[in-house]
Design goal:
Blueprint lengths: L1 H5 L21 H13 L4 E6 L5 H11 L4 E6 L6 H11 L10 H17 L3 E6 L7 H11 L10 E6 L2 H6 L5 H5 L1 E7 L4 H14 L10 H11 L3 H17 L7 H13 L10 H12 L3 H10 L9 H9 L13 H5 L8 H16 L5 E8 L2 H14 L5 E8 L2 E11 L2 H9 L11 E4 H11 L3
Parallel strand pairs: 1-4, 1-5, 2-3, 3-4
Antiparallel strand pairs: 6-8, 6-9, 7-8
Helix pairs in contact: 2-3, 4-5, 4-6, 4-20, 9-10, 10-11, 10-12, 11-12, 11-13, 12-15, 13-14
């Protein structure tokens, strides 16, 4: 693993949001402060848009971490549901105990009464909706109606919509102009300008414990900025693979050809099973095998830097054929390593928690609360997370389920079983500091069930 090689305390370019790695440049800091101000002022509906990988989820994570204690949050991960379902999902996340046969107006009245009660206690309620560009028009109209809940002087519910630019296109439709007129603040996360990419890379390295001389020189930064288009997720992917490419060649000096290898690998990292790997990736796997880590060790390094695109396998083969001369020749992986998928085998702890979670979800009441701790795309990273969590928490109270986020499979970790929101909130406040780094949030069993159902192929 390249951490020791480069003197790092932890991976600097993981794509899972971590509040400690929030970069305030590229206008991210001012947008965060403006969002906090808008919520504090009770501004109703707020919208944040940006391209895939521009940092919306990180901003949402930071926002939840920075909100004061009197603000309750509701998190909607998959908003592509009907108006009735979105209202019921919010009611469940608020901990309201409603019969399944409750009519739409009854649910709305229950939500209204709850919000009035919280307002009387000096508390605020904010709903965060991710991937809101997937929300049907009828459901957006339901959001508008929810935003109308108010007293004479204050909004009872605030809503923050996070979405891709397609959300702006939808909002330009004449039939939902009433919702558009109720959006009090709109923010857009632009890609990082080329001159800030180097600062971003240096910041992430420092946060990961790096204290050595400059790693990413001007030519390397320029290559990453050009290939990533300034999108932070792509920067992370390329930077991670660039470090791994240099590690594979046993050098501490990053060169543009390392970036070129990273770019080529990013284009076909998600090729179909059995598809070829880049030349340097085989070298990295071979090095790890020699260290006794096996192919699973390589997956732990490489999975977090997986590309979101899946070009044809012909492009993957062409990339290997065009591998630079300095890259060593591919080494064949052992047959046993090729035969096993680390996501499915070799991890008893992960398998045990997945099975326990299925039973747990089937047994709990819909309005049971739990605490969402983190999510990861890598089964091997999940194993590492579970080993750490076991030092702080009772592992039998840690649950894992499969879902989809930003069109990619994700393993989500939650903790605890609580009968109401207050008990869950108290448990969250008692979590050890390291477990609060990713801004954990409250979830309901019904919300998780809805999320899992929405992620299943239709």
């Amino acid at each position: 693993m390249y951490l020791e090689h480069f003197g790092l305390r932890e991976p600097p370019f993981k794509i899972v949001p971590n509040a400690e790695f929030f970069y305030a440049g590229g206008n991210r800091g001012p947008v965060l402060e403006a969002l906090l101000y808008a919520i504090a002022q009770g501004e109703g509906i707020v919208k944040v848009t940006g391209e895939v990988g521009s940092g919306k989820t990180m901003l949402c994570t930071m926002l939840q971490a920075r909100l004061p204690q009197h603000v309750e949050t509701v998190y909607i991960a998959n908003p592509g549901v009907s108006p009735e379902e979105i209202l019921r999902a919010i009611a469940f996340e608020l901990g309201l105990k409603l019969p399944r046969e409750s009519a739409h107006l009854e649910v709305m009245q229950a939500v209204h009464d709850y919000l009035l009660e919280r307002h009387g206690q000096g508390r605020q309620v904010v709903v965060f909706v991710e991937e809101s560009q997937n929300m049907p028009v009828a459901t957006l109209e339901e959001v508008r109606l929810l935003s109308n809940l108010e007293t004479r002087h204050h909004k009872l519910l605030q809503i923050v919509l996070f979405g891709q630019p397609e959300l702006d296109e939808t909002l330009r439709r004449p039939d939902i102009r009433q919702l558009r007129d109720r959006i009090t603040h709109s923010f857009r996360l632009a890609p990082l300008p080329p001159q800030e990419v180097g600062e971003y890379l240096a910041f992430r390295l420092r946060q990961a414990g790096y204290r050595g001389p400059e790693l990413f020189g001007p030519s390397v930064v320029k290559a990453i900025a050009r290939a990533s288009g300034g999108l932070t997720r792509r920067i992370n992917l390329l930077a991670d693979k660039t470090l791994l490419a240099a590690f594979a060649q046993n050098t501490h000096t990053l060169r543009p050809h390392h970036v070129r290898s990273a770019v080529r690998d990013s284009e076909f990292a998600q090729a179909a099973p059995g598809g070829p790997l880049s030349a340097w990736a085989w070298v990295a796997a071979a090095l790890l095998l020699g260290a006794g880590l096996g192919i699973a060790g390589y997956v732990f390094l490489h999975e977090g830097a997986a590309s979101g695109d899946s070009p044809p396998r012909e492009r993957a083969a062409a990339a290997i054929d065009a591998a630079p001369p300095e890259s060593p020749q591919p080494q064949p992986a052992p047959a046993a390593a090729q035969a096993k998928d680390p996501a499915e085998a070799g991890d008893d702890l992960v398998a045990a928690r997945l099975a326990a979670t299925e039973r747990w979800l089937a047994e709990q009441k819909p309005d049971t609360f739990t605490i969402q701790l983190l999510g990861t795309e890598s089964p091997q990273q999940l194993k590492q997370h579970l080993n750490v969590l076991g030092k702080f928490l009772e592992i039998n109270e840690v649950f894992v389920y499969r879902t989809v986020a930003r069109q990619r499979p994700v393993l989500t970790v939650v903790y605890g079983t609580f009968g109401d929101r207050r008990a869950a909130q108290e448990a969250l406040s008692r979590l050890p500091g390291p477990l609060r780094a990713n801004a954990p949030l409250l979830r309901t069993v019904q919300g998780i069930r809805t999320e899992i159902a929405a992620a299943r192929p239709s």
